[in-house]
Task: structure prediction
Amino acid sequence: MPTSERRLRARGLFDFFKDGLYAVLRGIARHASGFYTAFGIFLVAGATLATACTVLFVALAGRVRSGTTQAFDEGVLSWMAAHRIWWLERSLLEITALGTGLVVMAIVTVAALFLYLTEHRYSSFLLLVATGGGIILNNILKLSYDRPRPQVFEWVTSVASSSFPSGHAMSAAIVYSTVAYLAARLQKRRWARITTMLISFLIIILICVSRLYLGVHYPSDVIAGVVIGLAWAAFCMAGLEAVQVFAKRFRAPALEHERDLDPKERQAAGLTQ
Result:
């Protein structure tokens, strides 16, 4: 086996990805004339990534509009209708509440207030922007596609808006992934960070399954909701990381209490002498 290949496997592809990311950040920080210029450049890069994810969403939406997914969607719901269990139905009816507006806003309010009071104000702002932007985006998409709700079997819960994309799936993907990300940034132990992310992932999956089991969404609705929700959340998270890297690069005092950069991140941001 060639030496270069052995080194690649020893380090891992993730390490090379991180090195590439740090190189990009270092290059932007060196050539930007000021904090807002650097932040703007990074936002453009983040917007490009978000656009790519949006293209995937639009591709799925196009298949939905053309009816390509209809047979699959109805087949999945018909299978669920044939395998309904009363206690599972009741359990998922409670779980689906985790994606409702009232519960989501309560979680966001408590988390944002905690972050603000503990001097993590950029993190608090990120959570509010991610949530508020997600609500606006979901409403725009629902009005644009205006897909009727499934009629495969009788709904177990009441709904009012159109079907595509799923608001519950989208809000769950945005809020729970963002909260988990912000919580993981404050945790020092790796197992705690992994556990936090796994719990977040499990909640998102259960909410998505509940929307199908209750008969109020097609599978393509919840898949689209998760895809566009994670795309928006990732864009917001990238924005926070950009603020942290470049604010430390230009000695911005507002990030004094935010998470400290590790040595490699400090080198990437040009903080080492």
Observations:
- DSSP finds eleven helices and no strands in the chain.
- The chain has a mean pLDDT of 78.
- The chain has one domain: 14-268.
- The two ends are 39 Å apart (CA to CA).
